[in-house]
């Protein structure tokens, strides 16, 4: 077996970020250590364009699975670290070739240390010729079954025959803070994941309508928040009591405009909460056309109530694509638990699909929503959730 002892982490997208590069790498370095926190044997080293993780016998599968969840990594490889000299490099490559059942190979060398006496091409040629002489493998430069990569650095050479795709994106938290409207549904936890992938730190706001919504519904939202918080470390969840606003809306506007008004109020509350907590935008799990409140006309009318930017990462996703992502991040089974949401209990029979701002404002003039908003904001509760603990960490 190849004796992989070091993981080499690459981060393509960051390289383009010029002067912010240092912040990016530092954040990625911290995020990687956080994600791998349950594996104490690991040792980390940061270089200009790579991060190295010494395995010290840690379980490869576990490291692989966790690293694939860290945003900002373009790819990574389990490598053998050897002395930066040609004899050691050739011997290791030959051993990897002998252990493989592949018929074709290619050597892909990169010389980062320009003082190394051979150029990349010469490293390729010399190493390939040893393999050609001592095995039955043939060179295939286009589609090799066994690509062997060599990175020559000053202190060591890293040799690997696999390159594992990373999650891409930016290190979570590097691009500022956004407030996500988090329901107990399928979509908004997936929206959280997509926002974090773009390097945003996600804080959440949830609207609960007790006693019409239960403690179970509230706990479900906190569980979902905990699940997605894995990608950024922890998550703040603001819980806002929506009951009074909701009852007043139904009393005043009646059926068709209730959803429009409810969502305009949710956006106003979210805008206030965002500004109070240093978030420069709010975000939702909306997707065009999915329900009556997500037609373009509805989105325009609801958005008209506020000034802060609204990010909608799922706006063009199909429901099936969203469900596939929910399964991938593990939130789907929790999302479909049948606890009532504040939107579902007051579910109107004939929601308007083409609301207008004039009509919405006409209904809003009929009750003192401003005071109800002040009250709701004043009584907000905040919880901080963390990813579910792994059982081994208690041992
Ligand atoms: P989801 O599956 O995310 O609940 P949905 O398809 O059920 O979405 P709606 O319920 O109309 O659609 O909600 C659209 C978006 O509004 C949600 O993605 C979420 O961002 C926000 N939202 C809805 N209900 C709540 C709530 N009770 N608290 C906070 N945000 C909410
Ligand atoms: Mg919903």
Helix fraction bin: 25-40%
* CATH homologous superfamily placement of the largest domain: HUPs
What can be said about the biggest beta sheet? 9 strands, mixed
Radius of gyration: 27 Å
CATH level-1 class of the largest domain = Alpha Beta
CATH architecture of the largest domain: 3-Layer(aba) Sandwich
Strand content: 15-25%
Structural class: alpha/beta
Number of strands: 15
- SSE pattern, N- to C-terminal: EHEEHEHEHEEEEEHEHEHHEHEHHHHHE
Poorly predicted runs: none
Q: Specify the overall morphology.
A: elongated
**Distinct small-molecule ligands in the complex:** adenosine-5'-triphosphate, magnesium ion
Q: How many discrete domains? A: 2
| Ends distance | 30 Å
Features:
binds adenosine-5'-triphosphate, six-stranded mixed sheet, alpha/beta, Rossmann fold, 2 domains, VC0802-like, elongated, 19% strand, binds magnesium ion, 39% helix
């Amino acid at each position: 077996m190849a004796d992989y002892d070091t993981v080499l982490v690459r981060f393509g997208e960051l390289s383009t970020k010029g002067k912010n590069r240092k912040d990016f790498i530092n954040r990625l370095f911290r995020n990687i250590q956080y994600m791998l926190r349950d594996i104490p044997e690991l040792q980390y080293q940061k270089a200009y364009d790579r991060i190295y993780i010494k395995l010290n016998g840690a379980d490869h599968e576990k490291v692989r699975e966790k690293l694939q969840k860290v945003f900002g990594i373009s790819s990574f490889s389990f490598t053998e670290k050897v002395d930066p000299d040609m004899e050691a490099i050739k011997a290791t490559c030959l051993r990897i070739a002998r252990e493989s059942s592949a018929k074709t190979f290619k050597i892909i060398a990169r010389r980062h240390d320009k003082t190394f006496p051979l150029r990349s091409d010469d490293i390729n040629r010399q190493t390939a010729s040893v393999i050609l002489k001592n095995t039955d493998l043939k060179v295939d430069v286009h589609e090799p079954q066994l690509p062997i990569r060599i990175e020559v650095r000053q202190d060591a050479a890293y040799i690997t025959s696999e390159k594992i795709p990373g999650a891409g994106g930016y290190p979570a938290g590097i691009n500022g803070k956004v407030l996500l409207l988090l329901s107990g549904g399928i979509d908004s936890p997936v929206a959280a994941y997509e926002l974090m992938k773009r390097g945003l730190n996600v804080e959440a706001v949830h609207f609960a309508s007790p006693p019409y919504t239960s403690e179970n519904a509230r706990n479900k939202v906190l569980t979902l928040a905990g699940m997605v918080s894995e990608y950024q470390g922890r998550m703040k969840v603001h819980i806002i009591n929506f009951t009074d606003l909701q009852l007043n809306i139904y009393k005043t506007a009646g059926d068709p405009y209730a959803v429009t008004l409810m969502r305009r109020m949710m956006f106003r509350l979210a805008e206030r909460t965002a500004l109070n907590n240093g978030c420069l935008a709010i975000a939702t799990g909306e997707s065009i056309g999915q329900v009556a409140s997500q037609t373009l006309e509805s989105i325009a009318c609801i958005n008209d109530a506020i000034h802060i930017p609204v990010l909608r990462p799922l706006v063009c996703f199909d429901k099936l694509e969203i469900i596939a992502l929910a399964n991938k991040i593990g939130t789907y089974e929790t999302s479909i638990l049948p606890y009532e949401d504040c939107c579902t209990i007051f579910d109107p029979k004939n929601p308007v699909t083409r609301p207008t701002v004039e009509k919405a404002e006409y209904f809003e003039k009929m009750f003192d929503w401003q005071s109800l908003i002040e009250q709701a904001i004043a009584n907000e509760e905040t919880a901080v959730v963390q990813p579910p603990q792994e059982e081994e960490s208690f041992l």
